[in-house]
Amino acid sequence: MTTGTTRSSAGLSPRRRRLLYRAWHRGIKEMDLLYGRFIDAHVESLSDDEMDALERLFEEPDQVVLSWITGAAAVSTEHDTPLFQKLKTYSQTPPKDESAG
Q: Where are the beta strands (DSSP E) in the chain?
């Protein structure tokens, strides 16, 4: 399984490059993989509102966000956004087997 970004930051705006970096450099490996896979797939298509929501989510402790993603705790009203729901749905999608093909 890949444990780092699979995409280049070339051609991305400074804000999108920061999001890509922050997604892959979290406090715990589970969140690196969760945020990292999501941002690799969506960084170019995120709206300004989605980037705002993601930046706010990055400010929360990784263990708290992980508990929201797994359903171990209810997500706070502030962070229960369309972006969070998109992230949660994406996290339940198995990663592609990059060795196949």
A: none
